[in-house]
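About this split. The held-out portion is used to measure sequence recovery: a designer receives only the structure tokens and must propose an amino acid at every position. Recovery is the fraction of positions where the proposal matches the reference. Here is one held-out target exactly as it appears in the evaluation file.
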């Protein structure tokens, strides 16, 4: 059984750790409120952007464009969005597992990492880290997303890669965060649930001015950039939500450990007092 001194020292150490986790929880809560508001304000725009481009592509007809055509040769780029800091539960490891368990072969994958934790985890699993833009996660902006997309789209247009994916954590609410893997290019038109009634309005082909190729060359990069920026915004909110939950659990666990150690300390102290009384009584009996 541990001595009273050891128990007291351990209890003091856990109390210090508990103060740290409480402070980190408070900081994460404040950051989460700001990130959550930002995510809620920007999500409608990205949802409408996705719906608009999907609707547009459904009515383009058979257009021969690099952003729409599938290719067999080339690498598969995965833009990963994680954090630069740990202590966020399974937030970072879930993205690493998502990519590792996907259908993307490790030898064909090139990682464009945004967040050092994801880059380190994928590098340890043998993935090629093509570009590391971890500094973006400190304060992500639309311009940062555009720079990343410009470099990736350039490699796609030059034929170095044949597919582009985006791995990030979708922010549903404060306690629910869902890792997602989206295919950005070549653009695929999502299938409708159920049968839509055919009318002249929804079956007429889209009319482009000046032409389809130039219009798509402008629209698709903005579409991809918007999705990447939306992922950055949601990832920041998800990170702070995950860290807040992790620190809350750590604080609760520390409280339970302190209670358990307090009980053990009191028992050890009571045993020590009982032993001393027994020795005093035994000594008094011996003298008498």
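Reference sequence for scoring:
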């Amino acid at each position: 059984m541990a001595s009273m001194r050891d128990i007291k020292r351990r209890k003091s150490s856990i109390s210090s750790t508990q103060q740290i986790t409480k402070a980190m929880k408070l900081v994460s809560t404040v950051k989460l409120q700001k990130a959550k508001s930002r995510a809620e304000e920007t999500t409608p725009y990205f949802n409408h952007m996705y719906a608009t481009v999907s609707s547009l592509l459904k009515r383009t007809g058979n257009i021969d464009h690099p952003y729409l055509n599938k290719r067999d040769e080339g690498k598969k780029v995965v833009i990963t969005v994680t954090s630069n800091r740990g202590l966020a539960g399974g937030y970072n490891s879930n993205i690493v597992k998502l990519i590792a368990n996907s259908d993307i072969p490790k030898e064909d994958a090139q990682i464009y990492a945004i967040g050092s934790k994801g880059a380190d985890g994928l590098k340890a699993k043998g993935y090629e880290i093509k570009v590391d833009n971890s500094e973006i996660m400190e304060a992500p902006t639309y311009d940062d997303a555009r720079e990343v997309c410009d470099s990736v789209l350039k490699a796609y247009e030059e034929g170095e890669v044949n597919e582009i994916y985006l791995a990030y954590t979708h922010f549903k609410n404060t306690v629910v965060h869902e890792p997602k893997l989206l295919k950005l290019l070549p653009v695929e038109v999502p299938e409708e649930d159920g049968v839509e009634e055919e009318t002249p309005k929804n079956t007429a082909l889209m009319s482009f001015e000046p032409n389809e190729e130039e219009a798509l060359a402008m629209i698709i990069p903005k579409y991809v950039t918007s999705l990447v920026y939306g992922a950055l915004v949601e990832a920041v909110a998800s990170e702070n939500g995950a860290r807040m939950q992790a620190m809350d659990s750590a604080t609760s666990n520390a409280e339970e450990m302190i209670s358990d150690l307090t009980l053990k300390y009191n028992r050890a102290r009571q045993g020590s007092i009982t032993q001393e009384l027994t020795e005093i009584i035994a000594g008094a009996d011996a003298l008498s």
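Annotator remark: Residues 4-23+248-287 form a domain with the Helix Hairpins fold (CATH 1.10.287.80).
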